[in-house]
Design goal:
It is built from 9 helices and 2 strands; from the N terminus they run ααααααααββα. It is an all-alpha fold and 229 residues long. A hairpin with a 4-residue loop joins strand 1 and strand 2. Helix 2 packs across helix 5. The longest helix has 31 residues. The chain is elongated and about 70 Å long.
Length: 229
């Protein structure tokens, strides 16, 4: 599953390159911030896409590992409806006495086909959808609290409930802003002008989403050796 966090970091580095272009245009050509704001909006769109992609891939691989007996199955994972034809293929592959000679002779291939078909219609952006998705591979009751515990982020509030409320609202607000950019060109219908976006808010948002994803990965895999950008 390490490839999922490596790919996520690659997406973050791409966002950092976009910021480098923003800084270059601002410093060397003295372009006004408002004229460069769409570059910041692109960063936010790509950030949410990176989060969504990570969750999809992480859950997909986790389910495959569960069905091929590499990791324990959660109750939610057990509830997935797998076609009999797929199950027969999996049993056939697992019963094979000789090494596989192609992908079609591996159980992972057939489970992957099934899981991809199930997950492709789902969106894992809002907090409740993310928690639901993680339930396929993570049997922990208080997921958000566990995630907060490993995040290197300065949460406001003094209690875990304060922090949980902040996280859930922040994730949902970030995704809502992304959707406004993608579907409404970030225009405020009441003023007929684009909403403001600034570097300070975006930097905090990027840090927050990075730590959110890193914590999910560390909690579920137990791996803390990955690179934190």
């Amino acid at each position: 599953m390490v490839n999922t966090i490596t790919t996520f970091n690659t997406c973050i580095r791409d966002i950092q390159k976009m910021r480098g272009f923003y800084v270059f245009l601002s410093d060397h050509y003295k372009i006004a911030p408002e004229d460069l704001s769409d570059l910041l909006r692109s960063e936010l769109v790509n950030l949410v896409s990176a989060m969504d992609r990570f969750i999809h891939e992480f859950v997909r691989i986790g389910i495959i590992n569960s069905y091929t007996n590499k990791t324990p199955q959660t109750d939610k994972c057990k509830s997935i409806s797998i076609k009999f034809s797929t199950l027969n293929k999996v049993i056939e592959c697992q019963s094979r006495k000789t090494p596989p000679t192609c992908n079609e002779e591996t159980a992972e291939y057939w489970i992957n086909k099934e899981v991809v078909a199930i997950l492709k219609t789902m969106s894992f952006q809002k907090t409740d959808k993310i928690k639901d998705a993680l339930s396929y591979i993570w049997d922990v009751s208080h997921k958000i609290q566990a995630i907060i515990d490993k995040m290197q982020y300065a949460f406001p509030g003094t209690t875990i409930n304060d922090k949980q409320k902040y996280l859930e609202e922040k994730v949902d607000l970030i995704v809502s802003r992304r959707n406004q950019i993608v579907h409404e060109a970030d225009y405020d219908i009441s003023t007929h002008s684009k909403q403001a976006i600034d570097v300070v808010w975006l930097d905090d948002t990027i840090l927050f989403i990075k730590e959110f994803i890193y914590s999910i990965y560390e909690n579920i895999t137990g791996d803390n050796s990955f690179v934190r950008l």
